[in-house]
Amino acid sequence: MVYLMISQRVTLAFLARTVGNCYLYSLRSMILIGFKYVN
Q1: How far, in Å, CA of 25 to CA of 28, rounded?
Q2: How many Å from the N-terminal Cα to the C-terminal Cα in the chain?
């Protein structure tokens, strides 16, 4: 039971980190594209 909770928490943390990295990457690329269009 405790192991299940710990593994679930680790999985959630891993998913959150992956989604956060994808979000930051897309945000950064969008900012770079915006700068290209502005300049």
Answers
A1: 5
A2: 57
For the question of whether the overall pTM of this predicted structure is more than 0.70, the answer is no
What's at 19, amino acid-wise?
Answer: V
Q: What is the pLDDT of residues 5-29, one digit of tens each?
A: 889 999 999 999 999 999 999 999 9
Tell me the domain boundaries of the chain: 1-38
Q: Go through 10-35 and write b for each residue having 16 or more CB atoms within 10 A of its CB, e for each that does not.
A: eeeeeeeeeeeeeeeeeeeeeeeeee
Q: In this structure, what token pair is assigned to residue 34? A: 């915006």
